[in-house]
Design goal:
It comes from Arenicella chitinivorans. The chain has 347 residues and is an alpha/beta fold. The protein has two domains: 2-148 and 332-346, 3-Layer(aba) Sandwich (Rossmann fold), CATH 3.40.50; 156-329, 3-Layer(aba) Sandwich (Rossmann fold). 41% of the residues lie in helices and 13% in strands. The protein has twelve helices and ten strands. The strands form two sheets. Strands 7-6-5-8-9-10 form a six-stranded parallel beta sheet, with helices on both faces. Strands 1-2-3-4 form a four-stranded parallel beta sheet. α6 packs across α10 and α9 crosses α11 (312-329). The protein is globular. It starts with a helix and ends with a helix.
């Protein structure tokens, strides 16, 4: 999302970027690595150099979610640089940093407060997310939903013909993204002779979880119905959205706030089934722009998938409504407009 922000032009605002990128792959996220220490020192040095050379007024920073390793990274960066700036702006792309505080030792709590507390401004994606901005006593808070560039690389007439339903899941493949919940639902549908093909796009978080998923697929005879394609980008990724009928997002991910992949599915007119977790219900209105299910409930997910497989008219209606909602609220132009409003109030 930071790349989207940097690609935009704002009135009376200049953005100076220090790239963080501590994790090169999805498996690196939230893990300690020695190389990250060197990158941490280099990041702090770059922030200090930019402050000295260009004298920006505000530090704009995306805090970590509910994960200790990124939290410690934040504490080190913020304690060493935040005092250099007149203002601090936190943009909470991840959520749940407030939920870590009570688990910390007394000394770390002190450093936590020094790093995070009393920013001038917090930007959050949804009021349904953990109240991180309130916990750290932000002086001002703004709700700015994410927005994305419109990408439609394929014509509608190029959509493949099929007699079953094509189900798509995109994102990090880990348990709290609802991967096993979806696999259990697919096994139930297969036992009922529902015709479907399911595609999972994204890297596995660990080799152990990959083995677990592949063993489940094999033990339930889903090899011909389920495919793990790994991480895809560009046209390869958009092709999978184009081929799909239903997008499944059964997340209960600890740091989830919004779900950019849901926006990507909305722009491709997909019927969406998602869990009512964190900010997701701000995107999906139940039975209008998609179907919402309880987190971790494979039974509810199975029911929703079965319902859409039996009613293509409903599937089409939900997809069209989702696309309309996307163009109204979640385009990159709408995001730029909302961010400009925030910047105007800060000046």
């Amino acid at each position: 999302m930071n790349e989207n922000l940097l690609s935009l032009e704002f009135r009376d605002v200049e953005l100076l970027h220090v790239r963080m990128a501590f994790s090169t792959t999805s498996r690196d996220i939230g893990r300690f690595q020695v190389l990250k220490l060197w990158h941490l020192v280099a990041t702090i040095a770059k922030i200090v150099c930019i402050r000295i050379k260009y004298k920006p007024d505000a530090l704009y920073y995306p805090p970590a979610g509910r994960n200790l390793v990124p939290m410690y990274r934040d504490i080190i960066i913020l304690c060493t640089t935040r005092w250099l700036f007149k203002q601090t702006i936190f943009h909470f792309h991840a959520g749940g940093i407030s939920e870590l505080y009570d688990t910390l030792p007394r000394l770390i709590k002190c450093l936590y407060r020094r790093a995070y507390f009393s920013p001038n401004t917090s930007i959050i994606l949804s009021r349904l997310n953990p109240p991180d901005d309130q916990f750290i006593e932000s002086k001002a808070s703004f709700v700015v939903p994410n927005g994305i560039h419109c990408v439609r690389d394929f014509k509608s007439e190029d959509k493949p013909d099929h007699h079953g339903i094509n189900i798509l899941h995109v994102g990090l493949l880990c348990e709290s993204k609802g991967v096993l919940v979806l696999l259990r639902s697919l096994a139930t549908l297969a036992s009922e002779n529902v015709r479907f093909q399911a595609c999972f796009v994204g890297n596995f978080q660990s080799r152990q979880f990959q083995d677990t998923c592949e063993a489940f697929v094999e033990s339930n005879n889903l090899q011909e119905r389920v495919e793990f394609k790994g991480a895809l980008t560009g046209r390869d990724k958009w092709r999978e959205f184009h081929r799909a009928d239903i997008f499944c997002f059964p997340t209960f991910y600890e740091a989830e706030t919004f779900g950019l992949v849901v926006l990507e599915a909305m722009q491709y007119n997909l019927a969406i089934i998602a869990s009512s977790w964190r900010g997701v219900p701000d995107l999906i209105e139940h039975e209008e722009t998609g179907l919402l299910v309880e987190p971790r409930s494979s039974d509810e997910l199975t029911h929703a998938l079965r319902k859409l497989s039996q009613d293509r008219a409903l599937m089409s209606k939900l997809g069209q409504n989702a696309h309309s909602r996307f163009t109204e609220k979640f385009t990159i132009d709408k995001f730029r407009e909302n961010m400009q409003d925030v910047f105007d109030q800060l000046s």
